[in-house]
Design goal:
83% of the residues lie in helices and 0% in strands. It is mainly α. It has one domain: Membrane associated eicosanoid/glutathione metabolism-like domain (Four Helix Bundle (Hemerythrin (Met), subunit A)), CATH 1.20.120.550. Helix 2 packs antiparallel against helix 3 and helix 3 packs antiparallel against helix 4. The protein is elongated and about 55 Å long.
Length: 136
């Protein structure tokens, strides 16, 4: 199978994000078992924290992956997409570390959020630049 190299960068990013998603799902499941909370958060702060970490991942990753696919299909290079993918994966990993630990350093959350936001910002700017080049 011949694959457009930029799409390979997106596939690697998606695969690594899939591993992080599985980790977060397992963490929420363990918390449910440990705290005997079959549904919802039960008002328990640890469960709320675990669920927010997973939800934040789901809020960020699909949108960024869609952006990355659009960039790959519109001709942006492999290096650009690997850089965006690395920012997203490292950012989401740090963020997940923060939300899966009982007492995590604040820099994991803020650093993870910043790298994830940088990935979204880079995609947004490149998509708008690409659109402007197509329209004007």
């Amino acid at each position: 199978m011949t694959l457009m190299p930029p799409l390979a960068a997106v596939m690697l990013t998606a695969g690594l994000c899939g591993l992080i998603a599985l980790w977060l799902m397992a963490h929420v499941g363990r918390m449910r078992d440990t705290l005997s909370i079959p549904m919802g958060d039960g008002g328990h702060p640890r469960m709320i924290r675990a669920m927010r970490g997973q939800a934040n991942f789901i809020e960020f990753v699909p949108l960024t992956l869609v952006f990355m696919v659009l960039l790959a299909l519109s001709g942006w290079g492999t290096l650009v997409l690997y850089a965006i993918g690395a920012a997203l994966v490292v950012g989401r990993f740090l963020h997940a570390l923060h939300f899966t630990a009982a007492d995590a350093p604040r820099w994991q959350r803020s650093g993870g959020a910043a790298l994830s936001g940088l990935a979204v910002l880079a995609c947004t700017v490149l998509l708008l630049v690409t659109w402007a080049g197509m329209v004007f």
